[in-house]
Design goal:
By secondary structure, this protein is mainly β. The chain contains two helices and 20 strands. The strands form five sheets. A four-stranded antiparallel sheet has the order 1-2-3-4, with no helix packed on it.
Length: 288
């Protein structure tokens, strides 16, 4: 009798442990997705960016407004040029939170801020106009780096020191050999060597964050001025680059001075690295 009781207790414990695993597996197999659309309050179904802030809110940028989702309902922020407490444009390109908890909103017509303490919109175009013209430029990318915000625009890379309230910029300049390959910035990423990788409409640039010098520059890949959409780093050390001509994978290398670079793209096949659209038929327009 005791043996049967012990076996029953043992089996009960095993089932208690395994049941959540079995249930979880069933949920994963079923594929439990929730569709959020205009019927649930989303301002537009063409989504351009998604960001989760430090409070857990999901921010969804669309071509027609910014949406804050709390898990149950949407709050929509729109553009109204006659109202200073509204967005500069309804077309949202990128969203990022700074070290103080304020939300930076990059639109196709200027940079805006959602101030954490007051929950109000501040447009940079309504502040004192500076030489960088961030109130009217298309903002294409944002990267937070402690108290620094890197802002990619259609006309240069801007470094904003949030604590000091200072700005510096990096552009393409034909008269300077070692400048950006193009001033139209598409993406900004940071590598493990503390360098910025800046993708433009004409190639990749690796930038020293401290002095804004160009460490490495490449604008001809396979004899094309490559239009860069996105750059991502894999744990293996390889770089994935999405372009108008498909996805490329390459290795980060270092020269004798310890400067990072990219292996010659002409040797992709020799290195057994392939561009996907040529070899497995993926469409060329892969954005990220």
């Amino acid at each position: 009798m005791r043996t049967k009781l012990s076996i029953s207790i043992f089996l009960g414990l095993i089932l208690t442990i395994l049941l959540p695993i079995i249930v979880s597996a069933e949920v994963l197999n079923i594929g439990n997705f929730e569709h959020l659309s205009i019927d649930q309050g989303l301002s537009n179904e063409q989504v351009t960016s998604i960001y989760q802030d430090s409070k857990g809110y999901m921010w969804i940028g669309t071509i027609d407004g910014l949406n804050r989702f709390d898990g149950e309902r949407f709050k929509v922020y729109n553009c109204d040029l006659d109202n200073e407490d509204k967005l500069s444009s309804n077309y949202i390109n990128v969203i990022q939170e700074d070290s103080k908890g304020n939300l930076w909103i990059g639109t196709d017509c200027g940079l805006d801020f959602l101030v954490k303490d007051t929950n109000t919109i501040v447009r940079i175009k309504d502040l004192d106009k500076g030489k960088f013209n961030l109130g009217n430029l298309r903002i294409t990318s944002l990267l937070r780096d402690n108290n620094i915000m890197w802002v990619g625009t259609e006309n240069g890379l801007i470094k904003i020191d949030i604590e000091k309230s200072t700005m510096d910029a990096l552009y393409h300049d034909k008269s300077i050999k070692n400048s950006l390959t193009n001033s139209y910035i598409k993406c900004i990423e940071e590598d493990e060597n503390n360098n910025l990788w800046v993708g433009t409409t004409s190639g990749i640039n690796i930038v020293n964050k401290k002095n804004l010098s160009i460490v490495y520059s490449e604008n001809e890949i396979k004899n094309n001025n490559l239009f860069i959409y996105d750059i991502e780093f894999a744990p293996s050390g390889k770089v994935w680059i999405s372009t108008k001509d498909g996805i490329f994978i390459s290795d980060i290398i270092k020269d004798k001075k310890g400067i990072s670079g990219i292996k010659n793209y002409e040797n992709l096949k020799e290195n057994k690295i392939k561009d996907f659209h040529d070899d497995i038929g993926i469409s060329k327009n892969i954005y990220n």
